[in-house]
């Protein structure tokens, strides 16, 4: 049994600063720095740590996010522990390299305070950026508090380095990235013990020369893609184990998804991110006061998708809604999480009313009242349909 | 440049670029790769941009490379190399790098340098990473089947600048990549040719050693058999004529001083240069040129030499 | 030949065997074959210098050619020679002849 360590302290931190503190604790070697709102304060804080000698890392002040990710791909391939962060247009610009990073099996960790994508330009929060990256082979966490951001970044290194895949830790831009919460920080020595540097299967080293990033013909390409598919699927168990181990050691763990009053819930909202979850919880409380057995499920690990956990969480409900903060234009259902869940249920023979709700686009305010209306809708008119909420139509 | 190799006898003998790769017979870039790898020695990491060299040398499960080698994408080899260099630095500082003084070298084509990779190259140069960036210039996007790039010379035929009835070949002039690079005030940048190997390897070695100070750059002229439409035994001859006619001057930019190298050092005097026609006439991509067009190219070349002459006096 | 299964391959398409294109003999690319006439070779090294494939080998030894003695001899490694003919084109004494490959 591991001892829960004692030398912890609490700081008032924004979500972005929580990220920076976690990266510092992880003793990262190379950081690619490029500004974009609402990510910028992460790399500013990290720059400060380096400037003050608190973090022994090389900062690369790249000239774009495409180069940011490319640089950490190079650094990670050379065996360094790396970090970068971006949002919105930056993640779009780097998109090409998202696929390459995962295919090259590099354990990069990247923070993504989520932000709407242009056009029109919006610096505000939704998950258009993260959702557009959801099938690039990365591990994707979506955290809901500054504390969880801190803990998840640390867990992400452990998971990524175990499975040789990159990990993205996303959270609400502004709503979480820029709001201050008390965050319990771990003893950095303990974090480093939690993150031993595993021997990487291949790195760029003249003593053991290898070729990375070759050309693969139709005889070979598919096998590597299959390897990747399997590796990401298998990450599910690793993520679960690492979260449990982290809990044992540091006293906080989250599971792959978080449930709120789901034990006896008849109606549920499934969502992701801090704001949507917080408001849905408040609405569930009101619904319960008014006699509806309401609950909330929050996805924490989004890729690999924790299918069975989710199906189990929704087992007892009569109907549920999936609150998405991104739009997949022209898709059979515009909400990305809604579509994932519909697929999961179809495969596993579960058939229940499920409403896809799109809301909070470009940080359109999601009122608790709106969430409450979702429960009413589920109770009064359970159906399968996508609803755009909060928009003037 | 420092003279590391005085005669052919001094050249490194060990081959560090394996045969069996799929570069065309007579490929100029292949000659460059052979000498780059020999000269940089085994303690180096190579970052390669997408292009002919990359696809022909890494057909899974085989590789021609004997160095640690990474290819990521087309436009980012300078950024990838920046990351490798930073990683080595950080890992060394933390006592986690076991390979000693490892150099980092980029190999990229003209498309990957003049065009799509220009931004990441500029970033790498501006940040002063200790990386040697080697451009092998075959004056078009060859890997995708001979499309024009910012490096393609005026009037040259390519598949996207065909010789039609209304327009014949490329309309624009070749970009001055050396001017762009030296504007970053790098410690060292030089042009080189696969026809002048002794000059080239001394430049490679000089540029490699100068990476202690910051980024260095080599522009290696590398004729392409199918792209330039000439018989495959003529690669070196054409590369040599490019220099002898003054079309591709050999020079180096060493800490702000421009120096012309032999034989280009004699070519400020136009009468010492062979007629440009001798270079152009060997190549199918210029076969459609009229006397007037050749005269226009020559005029532009004279202006370029005048400009080089002024730079050399600074 | 059956190719390895996905689980048997190194992850990330890494090629752990440097210089492994050597397995791929490119001799079949040739239509013309360079032949060095040693009696005309003056050991200038230019064929070795310019060969794009590195297929010209330097053999050390004592070689009596006419009334001259050399300590090296240039030989073509035909396994990889693609027959481009740069060596023949560059040879200052025309000591290299390009002869048609037997069909
Ligand atoms: C982003 C992107 N755009 C286009 C391509 C297609 N592409 C691959 S190689 C290449 C040409 C490379 O040209 P150059 O850099 O001059 O090298 P060469 O093939 O001529 O040696 C192109 C256009 C690509 N791989 N990636
Ligand atoms: S197309 Fe040109 S550059 Fe590419 S391998 Fe062939 S000769 Fe070399
Ligand atoms: Mg090219």
Description of the molecule:
- The complex is a heterotrimer of chains A (393), B (314) and C (103).
- By secondary structure, chain A is of the alpha/beta class.
- Chain A has 2 domains: 9-195 and 216-250, Thiamin diphosphate (ThDP)-binding fold, Pyr/PP domains (Rossmann fold); 257-388, Rossmann fold (3-Layer(aba) Sandwich).
- Chain A contains 13 helices and 16 strands.
- In chain A, strands 3-2-4-5-7-6-13 form a 7-stranded mixed β-sheet, sandwiched between helices. Chain A has a 6-stranded mixed β-sheet with strand order 10-12-11-14-15-16, with helices on both faces.
- In chain A, α1 runs parallel beside α7 (146-163).
- The longest helix of chain A is centred in the middle third of the chain and has 30 residues, at 221-250.
- Chain A is globular and about 70 Å long.
- Chain B has 314 residues and is α/β, with parallel strands linked by helices.
- Chain B has one domain: Rossmann fold.
- Chain B contains 11 helices and 8 strands.
- The longest helix of chain B has 23 residues, at 291-313.
- Chain B is globular and about 65 Å long.
- By secondary structure, chain C is mainly beta.
- Chain C has a domain at 29-100: Alpha-Beta Plaits (2-Layer Sandwich), CATH 3.30.70.
- Chain C is built from 2 helices and 4 strands; from the N terminus they run βαββαβ.
- Chain C has helices at 46-50, 86-90; strands spanning 32-36, 56-65, 68-76, 96-100.
- In chain C, the strands form 2 sheets. Chain C has a two-stranded antiparallel sheet. Chain C has a two-stranded antiparallel sheet with strand order 2-3.
- In chain C, β2 (56-65) and β3 form a beta hairpin.
- Chain C is elongated.
- In chain C, 34% of the residues are buried.
- Chains in contact: A-B, A-C, B-C.
- β9 (211-212) of chain A pairs parallel with β2 of chain B.
- The site of iron/sulfur cluster has 12 residues of chain B, from α2 and α8.
